[in-house]
Amino acid sequence: MRVKICGITQPQQSIAIATLGATALGFICVPTSPRYVTIEQIQAAVAQLPSKIDRIGVFANTSITEISQTVLASGLTGVQLHGDESAEFCYQLRQSLPQVEIIKAMRVRNLEHLQTAANYTKFVDTLLLDAYHPQQLGGTGKTLDWQMLQEFSPTCPWFLAGGLTPDNIVDALSQVQPNGIDLSSGVELSPGDKDLDKVALLFQRLGNRK
Ligand SMILES: O=C(O)c1ccccc1NCC(=O)[C@H](O)[C@H](O)COP(=O)(O)O
């Protein structure tokens, strides 16, 4: 299973988290986020990473030109679209960045909203389901209704996100079977400062699901 730890801001933490078992690291390229990092900070954080670790830039309602410039300058291997991007936008981004993984995040409000995920599966590599929050785009610590997701079975791989922690991960994975999980505030001391003890505990609790 893929494990993405999102909202990395410090180079030494990126190495430590990869060593503990993360398969992907996420970098927040949304200027209003307390976890925002510049291209230079991403470059520093990925410089020593093994090539097998995915480096995902998280964007929200950013232009294709700006996303492409950031990806090329910072060596990102994937882009996570966390705003209100349309399926058409995902298709256009794919034309600009054919080698880059495109992850469309859905901030799920209800079952009907979940059904719109099907509109994206032809144009993206991966979906990510996150909790809806009226004021914040992500990193909210809010959980989804996992029971509602039990029937969710898109035609592309998907990540479960939203309020996951070392304490609830086993319960979450007993109810849903995503291809990957994504955690941010549940393994943090403060926004952007990861708690390496909590990350270690996460991998311990994941056991052989890793
Ligand atoms: O984390 C942020 O600050 C953020 C800001 C703007 C857009 C997206 C953002 N995070 C996206 C993520 O992938 C988080 O990991 C995801 O929302 C889960 O966060 P959490 O509930 O804290 O585990």
UniProtKB/TrEMBL annotation:
- Show the InterPro entries listed in the entry: Aldolase_TIM, PRAI_dom, RibuloseP-bd_barrel, TrpF_fam
| UniProt signal peptide | none
- A Pfam family in this protein? PRAI
**Which pathway or pathways does this protein act in?**
Amino-acid biosynthesis; L-tryptophan biosynthesis; L-tryptophan from chorismate: step 3/5
**GO biological process, alphabetically ordered:** L-tryptophan biosynthetic process
- Isomerase is among the record's keywords: yes
Provide the catalytic activity annotation. Answer: N-(5-phospho-beta-D-ribosyl)anthranilate = 1-(2-carboxyphenylamino)-1-deoxy-D-ribulose 5-phosphate
Could you say which EC number(s) this protein's record lists?
A: 5.3.1.24
| Domain N-(5'phosphoribosyl) anthranilate isomerase (PRAI) residue range list | 3-204
- Enumerate the PANTHER family for this protein: N-(5'-PHOSPHORIBOSYL)ANTHRANILATE ISOMERASE
Q: What protein name applies here?
A: N-(5'-phosphoribosyl)anthranilate isomerase
What is the native source organism of this protein? Trichormus variabilis SAG 1403-4b
Q: Could you read off the lineage of the organism from its UniProt record?
A: Bacteria, Bacillati, Cyanobacteriota, Cyanophyceae, Nostocales
Name of the coding gene? trpF
